[in-house]
Write a structure and sequence with these properties.
With about 300 residues, this protein is mainly α. About 60% of the residues lie in helices and about 5% in strands. The protein contains 12 helices and 4 strands. Helix 2 (about 30-50) runs parallel beside helix 10 and helix 8 runs antiparallel to helix 9. The radius of gyration is 23 Å and the shape is elongated.
């Protein structure tokens, strides 16, 4: 008997086309490794501080309450709580969303085609992109990682002795939760773009002429990565260097925050003994030095995954 066709199955030519489309919609590897691993690490570390440290810092995880700032035992202590109903909280979250969402070429490509003159004729996905908008969006995504690095440096300068109870906890969590949301947005838009390309080509095979593919061995689709378009070497190198510099600063900030949270777990301002989290005993070595393993393991995991996926 002949094999029954599976509904929705792709023939060899269509499967090859979609494989090249998928490759074109994957984020740049260096951006994925540096930004994604650091953003996820920050979220993991702050979640650990929130949940595991609830008793030590008198916090309440369901309300994203990290306890009083600086371990202040007074009744009028300033709360260290994420997502208060104020502009700064939402601003931190939006920056996190943009930092991760603008890593995805699908979203960058859609934004670059949103104002295209031929959008009505070809459709949004197949229109001619604005390279200026694409470059600006990719640059903006990298710049959005500045906030957690700025917040870390500011708290180290002002409150390094009580870093674990500083406002880096709530501000960082607002940004990190936005970062997680941005990953969801990027994946969702990537799925929509992929589905639209598949349905359009399936309906009208001639629509594939609007798709551009690289001429190297990979032949992946050119869509939302500005360095794959004709923009000039100076622009490509500027964006690359900016991403690398900000990526290193962000990465080291997350490592530094992980170390300081463990080191200042039971510490008070000016080495006093009046804060709520004070203890004469040092935190166990697993806590003081183990938090550094979180960004390390996350970084290695993302590298392994990026090696496993064919880039």
């Amino acid at each position: 008997r002949g094999k029954r066709a599976i509904p929705g199955a792709l023939d060899a030519e269509a499967a090859e086309l979609m494989e090249r489309v998928d490759a074109g919609l994957r984020p740049k590897r260096h951006v994925l490794v540096m930004f994604l691993s650091s953003g996820l690490s920050l979220f993991f570390v702050l979640t650990f501080r929130l949940v595991y440290g609830a008793n030590n810092f008198r916090g309440y995880p369901p309300l994203l309450y990290f306890g009083p700032k600086y371990g202040d035992p007074s009744d009028d202590a300033e709360p260290n709580i994420a997502f208060e109903n104020e502009f700064n909280s939402y601003g931190h979250c939006v920056q996190g969303v943009l930092a991760s969402a603008l890593v995805y070429p699908a979203l960058l490509g859609v934004l670059a085609r949103a104002t295209a003159d031929d959008r009505g004729e070809r459709g949004l996905i197949f229109a001619t992109p604005s390279l200026r908008i694409m470059g600006l969006a990719e640059t903006a995504g990298a710049l959005m990682t500045l906030y957690p690095s700025y917040s870390f440096i500011k708290r180290v300068i002002k409150h390094y002795k009580v870093f674990a109870t500083s406002s880096f906890m709530n501000n960082g969590m607002e940004w990190a939760m936005g970062f997680i949301l941005g990953i969801s947005v990027g994946i969702f838009v990537s799925a929509l773009v992929r589905r639209r390309i598949f349905l359009r080509v399936k309906e009208d095979a001639s629509a594939s002429r609007y798709l551009v593919f690289q001429k190297d061995q990979r032949k992946e689709m050119v869509f939302g990565k500005v360095d794959e378009h004709q923009v000039g070497d100076k622009v490509v190198w500027f964006i690359f260097l900016l991403q690398m510099i900000l990526g290193f600063i962000f990465t080291f900030s997350v490592y530094g925050a992980s170390i300081l949270i463990g080191q200042t777990w039971n510490q008070c301002e000016d080495l006093e003994e009046s804060c709520l989290n004070f203890s004469v005993e040092h935190p166990p070595p697993g806590l003081r030095y183990g938090l550094i393993c979180v960004p390390g393991v996350t970084f290695i995991t993302v590298i392994l995954i990026s090696n496993w996926v064919r880039w």
